[in-house]
Structures are given as C-alpha cells and as structure tokens.
Amino acid sequence: QVKLVESGGGLVQAGVSLRLSCAASGSIISIDNMGWYRQAPGKQRELVATINSGGNTNYADPVKGRFTISRDNAGNTVYLQMNSLKPEDTAVYYCNADVRSWRYLEVWGQGTLVTVSS
C-alpha cells in the first residue's frame, strides 16, 4: 500500500507565502510524476503543477511565476512553494503521484485546505 500525506495548508492573508509538502510512504520502488492539483468550492479539480523524476516541471497559467514545485533528492516528497497568494488560490490542494510499487499505481492524498483572505 502507498500513501500520500499532505501538510502545510492554512488560513493566510493575500500576498503572503505558504509551502505545502507531500510525503509518499509504503511499498515504493520509484515515483515517476508527482503533482499538485486543487479544487475550489463549486469547481472541478484542476492541475496546479507537476514535476517528473527528471525534475522537469509544468505549471498552470494562473500560478506561473508565483508557485514553484520541487522534489527532495530521494524523490518521495514533493513541495509547492506558493508566493503572492491571492483569494482565488483558495482551494483544497491535493497531491498526486504515479508510483511504481508491486504494480503501477496512481495515488492521491487526502488534501489540505488553503484559504486566502483579502
């Protein structure tokens, strides 16, 4: 079994920074892509950023230049540094990973709530 556990969410004011973390644990051989998605109230889940095992990154247009995704050297923890937060960034942020375990798995975390007040 493989688990993703997110942390770092909270209530902040617009303009400040916040850093989310997501740690993978369990029967892991390796992890290919890792990413962050978010779901605002009444909206569909959307991509925020992804990073592959080679360190290549991809960002959604609304967060480009403000958010940075990174991974630790072991490759099992992914971070999302969020700067210049806006009220429209308010959402539940979910971690996602493509994991090579005893079989290939797509795993989701439980989510962490980020609320940005104006």
What keyword list fits this structure?
mainly beta; four-stranded antiparallel β-sheet; single chain; 118 residues; seven-stranded mixed β-sheet
Q: Could you explain how this protein is built, in words?
A:
The chain is mostly beta strands. Helices cover 0% and strands 59% of the residues. It is built from no helices and eleven strands. It has strands at 2-7, 10-13, 18-26, 30-39, 46-51, 57-59, 67-71, 77-82, 91-100, 104-108, 112-117. Strands 2, 4, 5, 6, 9, 10 and 11 form a seven-stranded mixed beta sheet that branches. A four-stranded antiparallel beta sheet has the order 1-3-8-7, with no helix packed on it. A hairpin with a 5-residue loop joins β5 (46-51) and β6.
